[in-house]
Design a protein that fits this description.
five-stranded mixed sheet; mainly beta; about 70% strand; about 80 residues; single chain; four-stranded antiparallel sheet; 9 strands
Length: about 80
């Protein structure tokens, strides 16, 4: 699945991911390939992107995530 993490100033990350963990407003959750479509608010915490090269972590204060057809867009 493909993920983009975007801020108003820059594109923090864009690439293929095996799984992604999010600090959701209702608690932490994880997405995998073929996850059901979802839109969720994010709270302060870490987004952890698992790639074939290892984990990449991004601290966020808030945001929104959309998962649609194996593409994730995160606005933080």
């Amino acid at each position: 699945m493909y993920i983009e993490i975007i801020t108003p100033d820059t594109n923090l990350f864009a690439g293929e991911a095996i799984s992604v963990k999010f600090p959701g407003s209702g608690g932490k959750f994880e997405t995998l390939k073929n996850h059901t479509n979802i839109i969720s608010n994010l709270e302060k915490g870490k987004i952890i992107v698992k790639t074939s090269e290892g984990n990449k972590e991004f601290n966020v204060s808030s945001g929104i995530v959309e998962f649609l057809k194996n593409k994730i867009i995160v606005l933080v």
